[in-house]
Amino acid sequence: MSKDLARLMPRYLPAFLVTATLTTGPCRLALAQSMFRGDTVHSGVYDGSGNGEFGGLRWRVQTLGPVRSSPTVAGGVVYVGSSDGMVYALDAATGRTRWETAAGGAVTSSPAVAGGLVIAGTRAGDWLALDQRTGVARWRLRSGPEVPFPWGHESGDRYTASPTVAGQAVLLGGGDGVLRSVELSTGRVTWEARTAGRIRSSPAVGNGLVVVGDADGVVYGFDLATGKLRWKYETEGHTLVSARFGYDRRSIQSSPAIMDGRVFVGARDGYLYALDLATGQLRWRFNHEISWVNTSPAVEAGRVYAASSDGQFAQAVDAANGKELWRTKTGLVWASPAISGATVFFGDATGRLFALDKNSGAVRWSYRAGGAIFSSPTIAGGILYVGSDDGSIYAIDVSAPRALRRAVYWDSAFVRATTIPGHVAIRDWFRERDYEILDATGLARFMSERIRDRAPSTVVFASDHAPPTVAPVAADTVLLRRYLTFGGTIVCPGIPPLLWSRDPATGDRDLSNVNRRAPAVLLGVTFERGNFDPNGTSLVSDAGRRLGMVPGWLSAWAADPESVSEVLSTDEMGLASAWIRRLGQGSTGAFIGIPAIATGPGAVGNLLVLQTAAEAREDAR
């Protein structure tokens, strides 16, 4: 792939139409300030709008690399980096790109926004100040050579330190072991303070002090005005030799959080520490029993929220004495928690985002992305923004009054009638994402219940054999059609219902059984020109790109484009190879035909596209 094509690829993969032009006029970008963990003390507390149920996706934007950078939201724009070397400015409401700028290296830290500038750092040790409106670089600063690790074989060096803005000062921690205070408007260095190891911990600021940890296992407190060392605290990890364990026991990757005169920080020696802010003296430590504490704690109202790596749990700890208040099982957690109202959000390495009751630790709901979550979530205006190793940036509705009910239809009795080669892979993908598995009877029950309670809902058809329980005949009065009319969503990765049915007992089919009238009556979609011939899909529409679709796959039974509500992709014959037919009331209710792309025996290559289509609300398609 050429560099030019690679650079254009994000414009073909986002969940929303990407535009390179900056919004002007009445909607012009308003300047605002924000940074990693939301503030200078790194509290991890955001507005209280994230107290609702999982309401589906507002948007998903695809990049060319893992997104371990944590999004920063300011002035209605999401600023985030990717390992593809780009810094993105995305409209917070729609996901449309305001601008994107090549940073010169992977961006795995969170940008800071202040004074009309976006400050971002790269793995290569560069710091850039980009114009908040245009993405044009205003100044650049380079760190020195990275300090060697104490052992030399330390793993998990995935993040660089995020910048912190305090007034007109920007605090930058470098892999060269230097903490710099630079002038926000110019990038001029006003002071430097050296530590013994790489600084991957993001500096926190409170009561005139800058607190930061390093890879040598030491926490430092420097004077904010001068950079003079006020105190340092050596963790237990500072005394450990990682080579004796075969893995890093020394580094501090966690960023400090400050509350009520104390500093809270995790370390790879397996402890969560509480230090006195003024003196650096130890107040307490909580033992994670060797498991790394990479998360930056969130702090609020006398509680500390943290999580464990190999220990695979999230916890709340009393800030006064270190007593554990609750513990909840998760996967491996490196990303930092975010607090919104009565909910605390954690992401883990299985790709699962947990919404926990912050008082009890009870799981309110969970959502699973297409890859591991090493990005820390940010909440603004009822939307949670987070990156994933699948290369996506997700905008998730976390303020819905009712949860999006999700199900996948698959019935062992109709396996022979199913034409989708990867139907089991589809079933399992959605089962792992908390979709309820429905057989033919369960599908009828689910649809009937949603018609009665009008709860938002979506069903993925892992089997493309519509059972008699929901579509006994081709009519606009059957249960399947009424479910769509009353606001339900169906995603079908195979042949549309009743168009070309197989015998459920034998799997036999013949062309004399093609019923082109059936989908016209059932869905209002016609297939007069479509056929069983596999044709290449060469064009993806803006609506298709908003779901993450790319061209270059084969499809059959494409629809007549004039009969659908929205064309997602077009094949070489000019027919709609993927499409949406809207049939519902209000902002939901749609039948979405997106063929499963086979990538091997039983394997499907566009599972995340199917998931996005199922979970995106109508105003997000």
Task: Please supply descriptive tags for the structure shown above.
7 helices, 2 domains, 621 residues, 44 strands, disordered N terminus, mainly beta
Helix content: under 10%
Structural shape: elongated
Helix and strand content put the structural class at mainly beta
**Topology-level CATH name of the largest domain:** Methylamine Dehydrogenase, Chain H
CATH class of the largest domain: Mainly Beta
Question: Which sheet architecture does the biggest sheet show?
Answer: 9 strands, mixed
CATH superfamily of the largest domain: YVTN repeat-like/Quinoprotein amine dehydrogenase
In CATH terms, what is the architecture of the largest domain?
Answer: 7 Propeller
Descriptive overview:
- With 621 residues, this protein is mostly beta strands.
- It has two domains: 3-24 and 33-397, Methylamine Dehydrogenase, Chain H; 405-620.
- It contains seven helices and 44 strands.
- Strands 35-34-36-37-42-41-40-38-39 form a nine-stranded mixed sheet, with helices on both faces.
- Helix 4 (479-485) links the parallel strand 36 and strand 37.
- Helix 3 runs parallel beside helix 4.
- It is elongated.
- The two termini are 29 Å apart.
- Mean pLDDT is 92; it is low at 1-31.
